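## Example record

The block below lists the input lines for one assembly entry, exactly as stored, with component labels intact.
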Amino acid sequence: MLTEEIIVSFDQVEKKYDKESVLKSISFELEKGKFYTLLGPSGCGKSTILNLIAGFTTPTEGTILINGEETKNTPPNKRKVNTVFQDYALFPHMNVFDNVAFGLKMKKMNKQDISKKVSDVLKLVRLAGFEERGIAEMSGGQKQRVAIARALVNEPDMLLLDEPLSALDLKLRTDMQYELRELQRRLGITFLFVTHDQEEALAMSDEIMVMKEGEIIQTGTPNDIYDEPINRYVADFIGESNIVEGRMVEDYVVSFAGKRFACVDGGMTSNEKVDVVIRPEDLVVNQADEGGLQISVQSQLFRGVHYEIVGLDDEGNSWMVHSTKKTEIGKRVGLQFDPQDIHIMRINETEEAFDERIEQFSGLSSTSEVRGEGADD
Amino acid sequence: MTRQRKLLSIPYYLWIVLFVVFPVLLLLVQSFRGLDGSFTLTNIQTYFTSQVYLTMTMQSFLYAFLITVLTLAISYPAAYFLTQTKHKQLWLLVLILPTWMNILLKAYAFIGILSQTGFVNQLLETIGIGAQQLLFTRLSFLIVATYIEIPFMLLPVFNAIDEIDGSMVLASRDLGANEWQTFRSVIFPISLSGVRSGIQAVFIPSLSLFMLTRLIAGNRVITLGTAIEQNFLVTQNWGMGSTMGIILILIMFAVMYVTRKRRKGVPGR
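Predicted structure tokens for the full assembly:
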């Protein structure tokens, strides 16, 4: 990878407030023009990363390069990075035009250029004609667009978005997800998006970094992270999942719930204790004598798109199934799934070791697909 | 519920009628009464034709203006730095504390400090400048009045600055403003609401400071307040006193109008 394609690089960055460590020696690189998401629960340090890039705070240890330059002594107003704040932080004493024009006025741009650029960017966020409106008169979604326009008008190298959609209602949030993704593709600016909502992260990102307690646990494309979560934490955080304890019998054979199953993972020691993940939507409800697992249905909930069925197997493990067909509570049913629906996670595996092992075995697993054991789409 | 609310609001309406509406009406009626108690317009006529009254009003106005400007000049930076300190509520309390003391006590304290044998003059003598006449000057009146009014400016300004969301400042810095530009274009304009309340709380009472004019300024400064007091208590010309009271009320409304909240970028409604 060429160095000029890297816009931000963190090298063993640590941040402490008083004596409490918020970020624990984090290193990563962000490429130009991609949509990145930092995903994690509140207090995991994801906003701290944003504040470090924006320059609102400085690292306790380590170096942060933006466009290859050390940034320790660069104040926020000298960085070609702009932020969209969670609460929008629009200036209440200015109208829409003055809010958007703020950055350009600070650069002492001439008035004609300012009004041209402002009206262009307002068109881009579909707010043309709103120039004279007061901030208090705008709806949440409109304020959101103003905040985005105010940042984009400065033509930053990178846009930082701090949970910008969390205050919007569901419908508007979904619309804005599409719009943001579309905007990012069109402008080619690097976006770093912070959220605790896994659906948002999966829908928009080129790459997701899952965080926990000041550390990045896993980095990958939405598909990678969804299909191959590194551990119980990531699997649990990214969508609903069934996680049970199991043992690796040998490569491509795992045992859990008292039975042996073919799978597509390998590279563990024989008889190693592992966590087994199967997504609820990968399980198909069948007759009791069909399918690999038998469960007795405990509860059934209609969720609109699907039924959420929960049942117990003979060993007492709880299984959640998303099914479009309904069943009956108390009934014994079989669950069918394919080998590639079984995701196996070693306990306490590092990300490097994990990536290496996946790389080694993903090639082999694709051949098993060719052999016709079924694809999961 | 609404019935209960109506019942509960009765004491407040009674209060307003008895202690606000009724006295103002009395004042209005009284201002049209001559010394003999008959209906007359002479009070108003005298006020607007008398050089003495007009000069006094102007002087009142000027001093109130100076006091307000001085208080603001001291309180705004103080309030700003107060919001940046760690124990801001504690410091605020310390600065607000003097308002718990009676104004007369504070005036007497200043007499002690500024008198010919007072602390300031002792200091001036030790450094060789020699004792000066400090008390009963216009300057001492300005200093003491400013001192007394500072908390009333400080408090609303402090609250206004303190309420500004920290993300507002970050946003401004993020968009390329340096610290001074951030203060000028974001913090100061947003805090103006507090400045307005502060001006209202300081300017209007300053127009009628009458005990200080006597105790500190030795009647060298005569404000409208002094004149009203003299008319009611000394010359017993209640009609004239009331007329000036009405004028003070009108000035108050004018100040409120000038310092009213204006919203930028919002079409008039």
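Residues 23-258 of chain B form a domain with the MetI-like fold fold (CATH 1.10.3720.10). Residues 204 and 253 of chain B are 10 Å apart (CA to CA).
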